[in-house]
Amino acid sequence: MEESDRGSGPLGVTVPRTTAIPSAGSTQGVPVTVESAAGVAPPAPPDPSLVQLLTPEGERVEHPDYSIELSDEEYRGLYRDLVLSRRIDTEATALQRQGELGIWASLLGQEAAQVGSGRALQPGDYAFPTYREHGVALTMGVDPLNLLGLFRGVNNGGWDPAEKGFHLYTIVIGSQALHATGYAMGIQRDGAENAVVAYFGDGATSQGDVNEAFVWASVFNAPVVFFCQNNQWAISEPLERQTRIPLYQRASGFGFPGIRVDGNDVLAVLAVTRAALAAAREGQGPTLIEAWTYRMGAHTTSDDPTRYRVASELEEWTHKDPIDRMRKYLTAQQFADSAYFDSIDAEAEELAIHLRQGCRDMPDPDPLTIFDHAYAEAHPLMDEEREQFAAYLSSFTEEAS
Amino acid sequence: MPRSAAQATQTTLAKAINMGLRAAMDKDPKVLVMGEDVGKLGGVFRVTDGLQKDFGEARVIDTPLAESGIIGTAIGLALRGYRPVCEIQFDGFIYPGFDQIVTQLAKMHARALGHTKLPVVVRVPFGGGIGAVEHHSESPEAYFAHTAGLRVVSCSNPVDAYFMIQQAIDCQDPVLFFEPKRRYWEKAELDQSMTPDPLHQARVVREGDDLTLVAYGPMVKTCLEAATAAEEEGRNLEVLDLRSLSPLDTDTLLASVRKTGRVVVVHEAPVFLGMGSELAARISEKCFYHLEAPVLRVGGFDTPYPPSRVEEEYLPDLDRVLDAVDRSLAY
Q: What is the pTM of this model?
C-alpha cells in the first residue's frame, strides 16, 4: 500500500453524507474476485459517510442524523477533559523517559475519540478498555495515577473495576470484546437499562475474539457498543494489512449497524456514541462505531515509527488536532476566554505534579504479596510457597544480623 | 459418610451431573449453563438434558460454535454477577478457548488485586475409550493444572459427580471440571442427603499395604479392577482417587505413600510432564526415605491420540497397570 493511499480518507469531507443507525453502511467495499484476491488488492475507496459536527477549523457543521446541543459549561468540560487527557499522556511519557515507568502507551491524537465516547456513558454503564484508554479512564473517575501502576510494574491497575464501571486494561488484543459482550448479556438478564462499550483498535478487528464478539452480540442482541479507534496503525502495520473494506462496514455482515465518525471531533464522537448507547439500552442491540483518528505518537515508548511511516502523514493529522479545533470553537463562540484556558492549563499542571510525585512515591510491592490474590479462596500450594519463600527471604536478614 | 438406603437411587454419572446442575440452578438464580447444543438437545452426552425446558433460554444458553466466545462471554457474565457453567463439547475442542482461559479467566482475580471474582466452571468431557474420531478423546488436564489461578478437579463416580459439580459452582475461583466421558453411563447409588467431602480432598477408595495406585477420573475404575486382580495374587494394593489435580491434597497422598512405600501413578494423558511427573517429584521430595521403589507412571504414550482402532493399546489398562505394579514390587 503506497503512502498516497493513506490519509486520503474522509476527514477532509466537511459536509457529511448519509448513514445513521440503524442503516448498516454502504457497500462500497472492493468486490472480492479470484483475480483481486490473488493479486495485490486495490485500496478501498475513501468512504464519504463520516459523521462530523466540528471541522478541524473549529466550525460547527450540520449532520442529517446526528446533532448535539450542550450547555456552555458542558462544552468547556469536554475541552478540559481533552487537555487533561493529553497532559496525563505527556507526563507519563516523560516519566518513562526518566526511568520511572517501564513503558507507556501514548494516546496522543486520540483524545477526542476517548473523551467523547467516555462522556457518553451514564451511571450503570460499563466500559472495557484496551491499554490505551487513559482519556476514557479520566472520564470514568479513575485516578490517572492508577494507570501508571501497570506501566511502572507495581500492579496491573489497582482500581476496583465494578466501582468505576471501568474494567482493568487488557493487553491481549481483543479479549475484552467478549467480556464486554458477556457483561451486556448479563445486563439483559437483569432487565437493566444500561449498556456497555468495548474499546479496541484497528489491529484488533483481525482477532477472532472481536469477530466472535460481533457474532455473539448480534445473535443475542446484546446492549454493547463496539468502539473501534482506528488510529491507522497497529504498531508498524497499516490499516490495509487488517482490512480491505472500511472497518465500520464489517458490521453489516454481522447484522448490526456500523458507522464511521471523525474521531478527532469530540462533539461528533459524543453524539454518535450517545445514540448507539441509547439504541442498545432500548433493546436495539449492538453498534460498531469506527472512530477515524490517528496515533500521533509511537505505539509505545519502545516503538520507533520513523522506521515505517512518513512525516507528511503526521503533519496532515496535526492540522486535525482534536484540542485545537475545540479551542477555536470555544473562542469563536465566546464560551471561554483566555482566563479559562489558563485555568485549565494550570489544572493540567497540578495533575502532572500529582502524577510525577505519586509515581515516584509508588512503592514496589512486598515480594510476598504475589501470593495474595492468585486465588479467591484458600489454596494450600499458595500457603506452602508463601511460607517457604518468606523463610528464604528472612534467612538473609538473619545472616545480616 | 452415613447414608440412608431409602434415599439412595441408582444413578449414572451423566445423570448425577445433570442433577447437580439442577440443584445448583434451583439454589441460585445466578447460575447459568452455556455451551454448544446444551439446550433442546441436552448436550451431546445429555448431561444438560431438560435444563433449558425447566430453567428457560436465558439461563440455559445454546451458544454459537466458538469456544473462545463461550469462555470470554462467561467471563463477562461473571463480572456482572452470574455464575456460568460452560460446557466444552469435547476435550479436543477446548483449545480455541485456551487463550481466554489462561490469559483472562485464570489471571483476572490476581490482576484486580482481589476486587474481581470469576466463579466460572468449565466442564470438559475428557479421555478416550469411546471409539471416537480424532480430537474427541484427549486428556488436556495438565495444561490447566499448570496454570496459576485455575482449580482443576475430576470426578470418577456418580456420587462425586453430583456433589463436586455443585462445589465447583459454589467456588469463587474458576474451576476446570473434567468429566470421564467413558464413565458417563456407569451407575452407583446416589444419596443426595449425604455430606460430601471437600472439593479438593483426595480419597483412599481401596485400602492396601503393598503399593499405592494413584489415579483420577476414568482411571480410578481401572485401578480398582487392577487392585482386585492383584489381590488374587496375594498383593494388597491401595487405590487413591486424587479428585483434585489443582490444588493437590498432598496430605492424603503422602500418608498413603508413607504406608506403602511404593507408588504407581495412572492417567490417560501422556506421561511426559503429565500429572504423574508432578506427583513423582513431590513424593520423592517429601517421602524419600519411605520409598522402596521409584515412583512409576502409566499413561498414554507421547504421541498424538491414535485412531480409535488402536486406542485400547494406547490407553492404560488393567494389564499395563499390573505390569507397572510388578516392576515396582521387583525393587
A: 0.92
